[in-house]
Write the structure tokens for this entry.
Amino acid sequence: MTRNIGILGAMAQEIDEVKALLTEKTTVKIANREFVVGKIGNVRCVVAFSKWGKVAATITATLLIQEFAVTDLIFIGTAGALADGLKVGDIVISKCLVQHDLDARPIISRFELPLLNRTYVNSDPELTDLAGKAVKRLLERGVEHMVGEEAVKEFNLAPTLHFGDIASGDQFINSNEKREEILSLLPDVLCVEMEGAAVAQVCLEFNTPFTVIRTISDTADHNARVDFGKFIVEVANAYSRAIISEMFQLF
């Protein structure tokens, strides 16, 4: 089967450099969204901004599958660290995704996906492995090759790779209290964001392989010291380009 890879970015600025990788590209507009269709190397792909939050990301992922017939989906973007030891610039690749704000008790258990009889959605092992191999190769070469020496110094980057659970919810987590609440209920979660688990559910129901790759941009509390806007442009955007480019060499 010929692959047609869907690539979603959590923020528009995080995929600008990914779009620049495309050749033979055209832009299709559907439902107030732009889908850039083209190739990276010899592999067909479609790149889009998911928009923020679970509902918006669900719509975008569904359109990728239904309208563009993507065979695989890669979600890339930033996240807030929950687990101790994670630092700004680290990379987390998903094993499982969970919606931390889903609660239909007493009908079903907290966090359980209605009518699906499960709480977690597993990432595709092959895509997750490819993502891991790509990131390991990049880190072996040195982060300065991705972002430049100035950004390394400014953001004190010394990234490490982690595989684990990612939680999603329609909340921007920026307090110690909320961070600790999520960890108390979902202690294995490494980081938190606003879209990945919703996209995972879409992929589950459409039987579409997926993986989620997140760069840690903050510690999901009120002690954030990073200029988020600058980090997105100078670090996350460059990470996205490097990771996607390296992954596509492995397809």
